[in-house]
Structures are given as structure tokens and as C-alpha cells.
Amino acid sequence: MQNIGRFIVKNMVWLVVLVGAAGAVFPASLSWIAPQVPLLLGIVMFGMGMTIEFKDFRHLVHHPWDVGIGVLAQFTIMPLVAYLLTQAFSLPPALAVGVILVGTCPGGTASNVITYLAKGDVALSVTMTMATTLLAPFVTPFLTLLLAGEEIAVNAPAMMLSIAEMVLLPVLLGAALNHFFRRRVAYALMVLPLISALLVALLVGVVVSMSAPRLAEVGTLVALAVVLHNGFGLALGYALAGLLGLSAPKRRAIGIEVGMQNSGMAASLALLYFNPAAAIPAALFSVWHNISGSLAANWFTRHDANESKISADVSL
Q1: What sections of the protein cross the membrane (predicted)?
Q2: Which of 54, 214, 256, 270 has the CA that lies 20 to 30 A from 126?
Q3: What's the CA angle centered on 164, arms 109 and 142, to 5 degrees?
Q4: Domain containing residue 188: CATH number
């Protein structure tokens, strides 16, 4: 099961694309799952919570400056870039709120894996994901209302409650289970990546199945907005950390964490409070940020290899 899980996670992009294509070609095969989207997200977040140990909070206590920079970057860069892109592309309200939702959500769990592959500060990445997720019930509705409230009705209090139920509560329950039943949880963690990957792919498939006709009309434009949104997040997060004097591993962690969002949460909120079209940006983001994150990790590792080679040549 561990080997299967590793294979699925390694090829998660293709799994998401495959399920998304199935949703587009055979919408009825997945659209019936739409009412269960909050439950699916809750299971994913519960799994994330099971990977958290209370000792992870020590990083927040011992490195508040690093985590503070990362959290601030997460909840300023991505929301502002999202808003500017919706204005630049003159996106209709349903799609605009979808892009903004992606920007106002916390970091995604895949960012921790990508940070590891990029030889970044994994502890910082995990702590940032944890901190932004815990803040999401309060920050995400407020920022969404602030940036999209003039274009479309945003029920911030109800959204706050939904995020607490779908995200915060499952994460805390998972962390508590890991704390009190660690030995038994260790067995579940072997198959957790496989389950999470399958559920995320299913979420994307459901969104595509419900918005397939609209996706054909606006897919190219929204895809461009998603690529730019993710790219600016990666680059600006990394640049900000550099300007504030953080080390290379920390810069990588913050850049990746800022650029990779919890798109499953964005899609769920879009389906709950807006319409299927609003979930299109999240579905596309879910595919693209795994591709761009893998490319970024590959670039960083190649850069390290070249630096090591240059250093070896100089020493000779």
C-alpha cells in the first residue's frame, strides 16, 4: 500500500487530469457526488491533522519571525494578486470570486512535499500550513468579503462557520488523534497520502463535471489567470523572504507555501456559497500548482547541483 501510495502521489498531476477529463466527458458520473464535497474536504483535512504533532507548535514559538513573515505573505500576496488579475482580465463576478477565493485560502498540504523536494525548510512549511489553516475561518471570509463583496454577495459569517466545520475541526481532531493514539495512527499514515490524493482528484472531477459547459467557454482565460496567480505567488513569496534576509531554505519554503493554495477548500466554498462556475479557478489551480511546484523543486535541486559543481571546480 505504501508503494502504491508513493506512486499515486508522485503521479498525482496525471490522476487529477484523468479524473477531471472524466468529469468533463461524462458529467453525470461525478456530479452526483457534489453534495458530499464538504465531507470529502473534511476527510482530507482530518488526514492533514493526523500528520501534525503538538511539538510542531514549537517552531512557531521558537521562530515567530519566520512564521510571521510567511503567514503575512500568504494572506497579502495571494489575495492582492487575485484581485488585480480579476480586474486586469475583467472577469465576470462568478469567476472573479472564484479566483479571489483561491487567493484568500490557506496554504495547501502539497506544499510540504514540494518544499521537501526543493530542499527547503520543511518545518517552516508545515508550521505555515498549520498556522494559515487555523487562521482561515477568520481571515478567508473577511478577505473574500473585502475583495469580492462589491461584485457578488458574500455571506462571511456563514462561510466562517463552514470553514470551521470543514477545515478547522477536522484538523484539530486529527491532531488530537495523533497525540493520544500515535502508535495506531502510524499505520493509517501509511495509506493516508493515497487517500488524500484520490479525494483531491475526486474534488476536481466533481467541479469539472458541474461546470463543463462553462469551462469550455472561459477555460483559456481562467487558465491564464491561474498560471499567473500561482507564478506571482511563488516569485513574490520567495522575493519577500529574501528581502527580509531569510536563508535560502526558508525562502524556498515561503515561496512554495505562498504559491500553493488549498484549492480543495476554495472549490468547496465556491460550490457551497456561489455556483459551479466559481469553482473552475480552484479546479484548474489544483492541477497547475502541482505541476509548477514540481518544476520549481526541480529547478532548485538543479541549481544546488550546479552551485556544488562550481564550488568543487573553484577549490581545485
Answers
A1: 12-33, 39-55, 67-85, 91-110, 122-146, 152-173, 185-209, 221-246, 267-288
A2: 270
A3: 90
A4: 1.20.1530.20
